[in-house]
Amino acid sequence: MLAANPWHWWIGVVLAIASGGAIIGVIAGYVQKVSATRYPGRRKR
């Protein structure tokens, strides 16, 4: 029981970092997809 509290704390830290990275990745992918259709590069002209 003594190790349960720190163990759960580290799981929370790892999950928070992973979810933050996933949210940033989704936002970056959305912005990239939207800006690609709005401002097509030389390849799509």
Mean pLDDT across all amino acids? 83
How many separate helices? 1
Provide the helix percentage. over 70%
CA gyration radius, whole angstroms: 19 Å
Major beta-sheet overview: none
Shape: rod-shaped
Overall strand count? 0
Kindly name the structural category. mainly alpha
SSE topology string = H
* Regions with little confidence, pLDDT below 50 for 5+ residues: none
Distance between the ends = 64 Å
Strand content: under 5%
Description:
The model has no long low-confidence stretch (mean pLDDT 83). The N and C termini lie far apart (64 Å). The protein has one helix at residues 4-38. By secondary structure, the chain is mostly helical. The longest helix is centred in the middle third of the chain and has 35 residues, at 4-38. It has one helix and no strands.
Key structural traits:
mainly alpha, single chain, 0% strand, 45 residues
Report a brief summary of the structure.
The protein is built from 1 helix and no strands. It has one helix at 4-38.
Chain-wise SSE layout:
Blueprint: H1 4-38
